[in-house]
Specification:
143 residues, mainly alpha, 3-stranded antiparallel β-sheet
Length: 143
């Protein structure tokens, strides 16, 4: 772990920024990791709802969304490579062509703020509807 990248309004860590390699040198390309148990459980519920499949389909039919998602991918790679280049174009969450893991996309949006990862932002907006998320999300950022 390099840093806590997002704290919930109650001060609990929600996202950590991790090193691109494990201590033994193994590549670990996921830069942002959703760590708060309640946020991770909420992301899992969204995944099981079929949202990832819907988002992936939209990437094929909405060119502006696809372009914004590619920019999120490039931003993710640039930030990770600034820590330590891995020599790979894999970022995380399925970027830039599909949606594979909402946990990564949500973590990216929480760490960087609204406007960087459009599908992470959408997933967070879906979570923010639930009043139980009040202690975990800065509501005005996601509603």
């Amino acid at each position: 772990m390099l840093a806590i990248a997002y704290r919930c309004p109650n001060g609990e860590p929600g996202v950590v920024k991790t090193a691109p390699r494990l201590p033994d040198g193994t590549p670990f390309p996921t830069l942002y990791y959703l760590t708060h148990p309640a946020l991770a459980a909420a992301a899992s519920r969204l995944e099981s709802s079929g949202l990832m499949k819907q988002m992936t389909a939209r990437l094929a039919s909405e060119p502006q969304l696809a372009a914004a998602y590619r920019r999120a991918h490039q931003s993710y790679l640039a930030e990770r490579d600034a820590v330590e280049p891995l020599g790979t174009t894999f970022s995380g969450g399925g970027m830039p062509d599909r949606v594979k893991c909402l946990h990564v996309l949500i973590a990216h949006s929480l760490a960087k703020g609204r406007g960087v990862n459009p599908l992470g932002d959408e997933a967070l907006a879906a979570l923010a509807i639930d009043p139980a998320m009040d202690a975990l999300l800065i509501r005005e950022d996601w509603t």
